[in-house]
Input
Amino acid sequence: MAVVALHSASTGLSALSTELDVIANNLANVNTDGFKASRANFQDLLYEEKAQPGVENINGDQRPTGLYVGLGTMISGTQLDFSMGPAQTTERPLDIYIDGPGLFQVEVEDELGEGLAYTRAGNFAVNADGEIVMANDQGRRLEPAIQIPEEADGVEILADGTVLVSLPGEIEPQELGNIELALFINPAGLKQIGENLYLPSAASGEAQLGEPREGGRGALRQGFLEGSNVDPVVELVNLIKTQRAFELNSQSIQAADEVLQTVGQLRRF
Output
């Protein structure tokens, strides 16, 4: 009956509406530093089995195909794309680009990820205490903490994460510490919480900390910033495809409704 078509098309509208939300969020963050685009994955739902394949008739002949009617679709999940965004030259000493895999580790509230979160956004600043923090509305502290003296003339961040400062009256720069990077066996399984931050989950595995350029971690590049990896052209094409698919599902509902109206009018004849 056309009732099944109504329900199947309605699941399509619901799933496509969610995909539209995902695409809109990607496009909204096209200028967000270190942002990673998400993709909506679909899966089909249960099937009504009206006839089994392989059933034999009285002559011993087997039915070559079955008869199955699907009951629609759903969003199975959103998948993060951790491909690298474009490197943008800023020449700011506390803008850091990760040239390869890895995430910075920052402090958050204890109830969030046991007090630690991770980010690809490398736009850092210093707070009133001279600590390196994220340059956002919360000012999350980089972990392990690095404090830059007030009298420092300049900051140099090496590819291996070593942080050096030049102090008045000293010829050799002073080493303040090392910036560490975290790796996850499944970064697509990280939990998104906003602020360009991710939390570990059972799917992502635990963070594996280490120095840049070691164990497959990327090198740090001072004076560069990683842009969003959202491709506006791809997202706009996906937006058009989603819109057209939404229209097709709405037409399926309209066609099923017309069929049901015709069936309801048969009693008049």
